[in-house]
Specification:
Length: 196
């Protein structure tokens, strides 16, 4: 196929904002509204395969499959507390690195602690994340996918507003690096709910 792109050069489309998707669609000769459709498939319907994006043309789905990556996490292990129902997930990233995500249930709702880095440079002797030091920062799509996959696996609802993202950021050693960067995440996560 003439348009096949090597894995490391593929576009991380789930990390793109709606304006970035709009620009990409226009660069590819597609109408601007395709970006909204694509955004909905990625961040509202949260599909895991290009073929599920049924309102996109077969040609566009093929181009997406050839040029883009659809970030997904692999669940390696899940622990559930018999005391309070807290769920801890060990996920493997596409590059083989592993991260943890924790879903905590409270009377007022659920909270999700996501990883923002592989490893950590803080050096706290009580935390296993610091043992290997900081390996790398996660991409927006890898952070989003922790939310999406944990909801998929647990069946639990997690609010996706700016306030909840801030709560997630404030948990863990990566806060000093990540603080404020959540504003760059796709709008479905950082904006107030869209009335439509």
């Amino acid at each position: 196929k003439e348009d096949l792109v090597s894995e490391e050069l593929r576009i991380d489309i789930k990390s793109m904002t709606l304006p970035e998707l709009t620009a990409l669609m226009k660069d590819w000769g597609e109408p601007g509204f395709r970006a909204g459709q694509l955004f909905s498939w990625l961040h509202e319907k949260r599909v895991r395969d290009w073929s599920e994006m049924t309102n996109l043309s077969a040609a566009l789905r093929q181009k997406l499959a050839e040029r883009c990556t659809l970030t997904q996490l692999t669940v390696l292990h899940r622990l559930v507390s018999s005391i309070d129902g807290t769920q801890k997930y060990l996920y493997r990233l596409a590059d083989g690195n592993c991260i943890e995500t924790v879903l905590m249930k409270y009377r007022h709702g659920n909270s999700l602690c996501i990883s923002t880095q592989v490893g950590c440079r803080m050096g706290c002797n009580f935390c296993a994340s610091t043992l290997g030091g900081l390996v790398r920062h996660l991409t927006p799509s890898e952070m989003l996918e922790q939310v999406y996959e944990t909801v998929r696996q647990s069946g639990e609802r997690v609010e996706e507003t700016t306030a909840d993202i801030e709560k997630e950021i404030d948990i863990g050693g990566a806060r000093y690096v990540f603080d404020g960067w959540y504003k760059e995440l796709p709008g479905s996560v950082t904006d107030e709910p869209d009335p439509k």
